[in-house]
Design brief:
Belongs to the WD repeat IPI3/WDR18 family. This protein has helices spanning 153-156, 381-387, 393-409, 417-421, 423-459; strands spanning 4-11, 25-33, 37-43, 52-54, 58-62, 68-73, 78-84, 89-95, 98-103, 108-112, 118-120, 129-134, 138-143, 148-152, 169-171, 178-183, 193-198, 202-207, 212-218, 223-228, 234-239, 243-248, 268-269, 275-276, 287-290, 296-300, 305-310, 318-322, 326-332, 346-347, 366-367. It is an alpha+beta fold and 460 residues long.
Length: 460
């Protein structure tokens, strides 16, 4: 049976004396489906908003108002390492085996957890980085300076590069600090969408590959956090007054795309909330997360509650848990292993602490499957080379075909058989060539005699 889990982090002291909750608990792993339950508790962490990331093997948690990141091993359920950086960390995000960290000074740090390689950018934001979103090819950073920067992931992690790192483009359409950013999983340039939320009471939908602002959404109060539907059909936003809003992007009155009748420069005013909570009893949602199938929305609140909202019926919420401290992050883990990375055969057994400077890096990972032929699957190129005596047959065939193609492409200097068969024609050509050579020799001799006579008359 498929299970769906999520991580929840807290920050700050306990709100009440509750002996049922461990005093030093900081991160909780919950199972949402089929039945809600707490499966693991990670201790000694106080995690700010947008500063929690989880992989199939590890959990990374930046500490509130500190320059340290706590790393937890999920199989062991314990802390594996404490990594210290040179600047205070405000936000983290994970893409494959690379952890991206936003600093208080506006720098972006990339840490390859399997090699220990660390790449740091200049302070391209003039204020702190408040949130980070990742795709397989891009990194998007939001800052308190009201701007978003789009970074090319291959260029940022390029080996041997001496050029100073700079963003691919900047997205500047907000007038206040960025509070949250969400991005789609699409890698098509036409559907590469991201949504940013700002304290200027607006959310902007962007095409981050072209840098185009597709639509602006105006809210009654400034949004604290946003979440995108897995298929990018809707945007969910939590505002400071305790309301929750759902903005459909492709309904009968589409906001973006070819079905949209309005100009992209026209802002959309959203006033009807699909849910609301009491600001005094629960508090406005500080974090949101959408389930794998897009049917459930989870919200974390300053009073410790985690609420579940049914997106199909939009009915009242139900309380899943009370963590007795301010909930700051909700992060879902992939329900299917393929969702974490198609074709991945390795996993990070342990992390390698970051190292500044040039050196030879070793890739440390654990093989997740047998590299040889599995039952019912075709053998890999590596398994063929490993089990074959000498060179594999298909390798030899490819090499022979390559040599044959090269010979066919070279110009032929052999006289065609049809010409060789005609001996009389060949003999005539030889005679004509000999006659031409005799004429050339006679002309050269005549030229020589004429030149000698001319030189003799000049000397007299």
């Amino acid at each position: 049976m498929i299970t769906e889990s999520y991580f929840a982090s807290i920050s700050g002291p306990p709100l009440a004396n509750n002996t049922a909750i461990a005093r030093d608990a900081g991160i909780y792993e919950h199972t949402l489906h089929p039945n809600h339950s707490t499966t693991a508790v990670l201790k000694k962490s106080s995690v700010p908003r947008n500063a929690l990331a989880a992989s199939p093997t590890h959990v990374f948690a930046a500490q509130d108002d500190k320059s340290t990141v706590h790393v937890y091993a999920r199989p062991k359920g314990s802390q594996e390492a404490i990594v210290t950086f040179s600047e205070r960390i405000r936000a983290v995000a994970l893409q494959d085996d690379v952890l991206f960290l936003g600093t208080q000074e506006g720098r972006l740090i990339a840490w390859e957890t399997c090699t220990g390689r660390q790449v740091s950018t200049p302070a391209c934001h003039v204020q702190a980085i408040s949130c980070i979103a990742t795709t397989p090819f891009h990194i998007i950073t939001g800052s308190d300076d009201s701007n978003l920067n789009v970074w090319a992931l291959p260029r940022l992690l390029e080996l041997g590069s001496t050029a100073e790192h700079e963003p691919e483009r900047s997205l500047a359409d907000h007038r206040a600090a960025i509070t949250s950013v969400a991005v789609t999983t699409s890698i098509n340039p036409d559907t590469s969408l991201c949504v940013s939320a700002s304290k200027d009471k607006s959310c902007v939908i962007w095409n981050y590959t072209s840098g185009t602002a597709l639509r602006t959404i105006l809210l009654p109060s400034h949004p604290l956090c946003i979440a995108l539907d897995p298929c990018a059909r809707a945007v969910y936003a939590s505002t400071e007054d305790g309301s929750l809003y759902a903005v459909e992007l492709f309904d009968d009155k589409a906001l973006i795309g070819p079905r949209s009748d309005e100009d992209s420069s026209m802002a959309v005013q959203v006033s009807a909330a699909f849910g609301a909570v009491s600001p005094t009893e629960v508090g406005p949602a500080s974090c949101l997360a959408v389930s794998y199938d897009g049917t459930v929305l989870l919200s974390g609140h300053p009073r410790g509650q985690i609420l579940r909202w049914d997106l199909s019926t939009r009915t009242d919420s139900t309380e899943l848990a009370n963590l007795n401290a301010a909930v700051t992050n909700l992060v879902f883990t992939p329900a299917l292993p393929e969702a974490a990375g198609p074709g991945r055969r390795t996993a990070a057994a342990t992390v390698v602490k970051p190292f500044m400077g040039s050196r030879t890096y070793n890739y440390t990972a654990q093989l997740e499957s047998d590299m040889c032929e599995d039952e019912g699957q075709s053998p890999t190129a590596f398994s063929k080379m490993l089990t074959t005596k000498g060179l594999p047959r298909d390798f030899l065939e490819v090499g022979i075909m390559a040599f044959q193609q090269q010979q066919q492409q070279q110009p032929s200097t052999v006289i065609p058989e049809s010409t060789a068969a005609g001996g009389s024609e060949l003999e005539e050509l030889r005679k004509e060539n000999a006659a031409l050579r005799e004429v050339i020799a006679e002309q050269r001799a005549l030229q020589k005699k004429t030149l000698e006579k001319y030189l003799g008359s000049q000397s007299k």
